[in-house]
Amino acid sequence: MHWTPEQILKLAPDAASAKAAQGLLAPKKWTSLGVNETAIWGACQGSGSNPYQTQIDLADPAFKCSCPSRKFPCKHGLALFLLFAEQPSLFAKTAPPDTVASWLKGRSDRAAKKETAATTKSKDPKDPESQAKTAARRLDRVKDGALELQRWLEDMVRTGLAGNLSRGTAPWESQAVRLVDAQAPGLARLLKETAVLSTREGWQERLLEQMALLYLLLEGFRRSAALPEDLQDEIQSLIGWKQDQQELLQDVGIADEWNVLGQRTLLEDRLQVQRTWLKGTSTGREAMIVAFAYGNQAPFSGMIPGTCFDGELVFFPGRLGLRALVKTRSEATRQLQKLPGESIARAVARWSERKANCPWLERFPFELGRVVPATAHGHWWIIDEAKAELPLSPFRDVWKLVALSGGHPIALFAEWDGHSLLPVSACVEERFVELNA
Amino acid sequence: MPKASTNSAQLWSELVKAALLGTDRIALPELGSSDNVGALLSQLDPSNREASLLAAAAVVLLHRQCGTVTVPSEKSGFPASKSDETPRCGSNAASYLKRMLQGQFPHLLPEFFSALAESGQRLPEEVLPDALDAGRKDIKLRNLVAGVIGKRGEWLASLNEEWDYVAAKADVKDWETASRPSRVSMLRELRKNNPPDAIGLLTSTWKQDGPEDRLAFVEELQIGLHSGDEDFLESVLDDRRKEVRKKAAELLVRLPESRLARRMTERARSLVAASSASGSKLLRALTRQSKIQVTLPEVCDESMRRDGIEPTPPQGMGEKAWWLRQMVASVPITFWNDHLGLPTAQCVQDAEKTDHAEVLLPAWATATKRGRHVEWAQAILEYALGANRNFQLLSVAEVLPPTHRDPVVIKLLSSDRNLIGYAQPGFNLLQCCPGPWSSWASAASPPLPIVTWLETISGGCL
Question: Average pLDDT for residues A320-326, to the nearest whole number?
Answer without folding.
Answer: 93
